[in-house]
Each structure stands twice: as C-alpha cells, then as structure tokens.
Amino acid sequence: MKIITTPADFIAWRNENQQSLGFVPTMGALHLGHEELLKNARANNELVALSIFVNPTQFNDKKDLQNYPKTWEQDLEIAKKNGVDVIFYPDFESIYPDNYSYIISENDKSKVLCGASRPGHFDGVLTIVLKLLNILKPNRAYFGEKDFQQLSLIRGMVAAFFIPVEIIPVAIVREFDGLALSSRNVHLSDEGRKIAPKIYEIIKSAKNIDEAKKQLEDLGFKIDYLEEIWGRRLVAIFTNLTKTGNELRLIDNVEI
Ligand code: AMP
Questions:
Q1: Is 128 touching ligand 1 by the criterion CB < 6 Å?
Q2: Catalytic positions
Q3: Please, are residues 256 and 208 in contact by the beta-carbon 8 Å criterion?
Q4: Same structural domain for residues 24 and 116?
C-alpha cells in the first residue's frame, strides 16, 4: 500500500496507473461506515484510493476541528484490510497553495439544514472535493448517505461542472442499536451513548415532524433542524452528554 502526500506525486502516480480507480474521501478516524465505502470501491474498480485529510475549511467551529479524532495507525490497518492500493495524505499547504482564496460555493441547497447552522461548511466541502477529484482523477467516488445533503451537493457540483466521475452513494451503516456510525460518536459519554440510538428510532417511527421533535426534546436533545425534504427526513441535534461536557452535534436521516 502506497502513501502519497503531495498533489504532484499523486498526479505522477496516476499517470503511471491508469486502471479504473475508485476513490473514498475521508477525514480519517475510520469506522465501519468508511469500510463500507471502501468495500464498494474494492468490488468495482481495479484500484482503490483512500484520502485522509481533516479539512479545516469545512469546520466553522474551531473546537470541533481541534477535537476531531485522529487514529492514523488504526486507519492504516483498516485501509490494508480493505485492499486500499494508495492513500492520499496531504497537508494544508500542499492542497491549498492559494490559501483558500479560490472557493467553490453553491447558492441554493447549501444554504439550508447543515448549511444554515454551519456557515461556510459546504463551501469548504465542495472546494476540497473538487481539488481531490482533480488530483486523483477517479472513475468513481464513493460518498455516504449519512451526509445526505453533502452527497446531493457533490452530485450537483459534478453535474454543474461536467466533472468526469461517477458519484456512488452508499447506505448508512449503523451500530447494532441503530445509532449511525460517526467519527464523533467517541465523544459521547456512557449515558449519551445509551440514548443516542433514540435519534434514529424516533425519526424512523414518529408519525410527523412535530411528534419527532417533541420526543427528541423530551429526551433532552436540542434540535438544530428536523425537516422533510428530498424524500428524506433529516435531523441534526445537539447533546451535552459527552465525555468533556462540550456540546456535540449529531446528524442522521431516513428515507420517507
Ligand atoms: P468523514 O470522514 O466523516 O468525512 O466521512 C467520509 C465519508 O464516509 C463520507 O462520504 C461520509 O458520508 C461517509 N460516512 C461516514 N459515516 C458513515 C456511515 N455511518 N455510513 C455510511 N457512510 C458514512
């Protein structure tokens, strides 16, 4: 398994390795959700690339960025186990030679839900994804439905700019009790971990949005948003039931 850290080196590698490439972009702290993306990529491409880059431009909250979990050794094991051929692991300077003065932004879908509560978040996401697609030139790129709004914006960007890549959606991977896997779940306290699966249970079974909101609030969650749009019921909540007592934001969604 090769590890490449600069855009120039990756572009050179890709020139020499022109087989079909499946690409899984991540911020590391890999879990079974990421593994599902890798498995899909492995099954349908000759080569598999994984990127690990905690992209600062998509964090509107500095603390969230500082506290983002890093598990490099474990990530390497997971990548090897899933047959990854090449890991792209750049640093900020190499991937933002412009120091983020060029920005991709979207003016409609990116302004609601996560975009409304995290200003600038999707600008950062779209900009880094465009850079990665231009560097890696994959045939297929895999994104989880866990971040449904992100997936839909990336599809929109690829269509808008005629980017020659196929975007493949992957269903949400959940814990045994229904909690959507997330790198941020490690921040939950024991008590938080116990009630977090209720988020899925409630959005799946509540008769309507008002009922779901009430049930979540009764459990002590603060609701960021809960809406039905794009054929999905999507939710973001805040909880204080964390190891440090700092507020944690979790998202989930189900098909309606
Ligand atoms: P992240 O490292 O959180 O930026 O996520 C990298 C990719 O993994 C994104 O496309 C996510 O949507 C996807 N992903 C994260 N968690 C899950 C999950 N529980 N199930 C499916 N995909 C996921």
A1: no
A2: 34
A3: no
A4: yes
Is 81 domain-assigned?
A: yes
In the listed set 170, 191, 220, which residue is the last one of a domain according to the structure?
170
- 121 CB within 6 A, ligand 1: no
Q: Cα separation of 184 and 116, whole Å?
A: 20
pLDDT at 201: 98
- Within this chain, do residues 140 and 199 fall inside the same structural domain, yes or no? no
204: domain range? 183-250
The answer to whether residue 256 sits within a structural domain is no
pLDDT reported for residue 36: 98
Q: What is the number of domains present in the chain?
A: 2
Task: Tell me, in angstroms, the distance from the centre of ligand 1 to residue 32's CA.
Answer: 9
For the entire predicted model, the pTM comes to: 0.97
Which H helix or E strand runs over 21?
Answer: strand 21-26
Atom of ligand 1 nearest to the CA of 25: 6
Which residue of 37, 145, 173, 179 sits with most ligand 1 atoms within 8 Å of its CB, as the best mutation to test the pocket?
Answer: 37
CB 196 near ligand 1, within 6 Å = no
Residues 47 and 166 in one domain: yes
Residue with CA nearest ligand 1 atom 19: 181
Alpha helices in 137-183 (DSSP H): 148-160
- From ligand 1's centre to the CA of 126, what distance in Å? 15
* Burial class of residue 37 (count of CB atoms within 10 Å of its CB; 0-12, 13-18, 19+): buried
Mean pLDDT by 10 residues, the chain (256 residues): 98 98 98 98 98 97 93 98 98 98 98 96 98 98 98 98 98 98 96 98 98 98 97 98 96 97
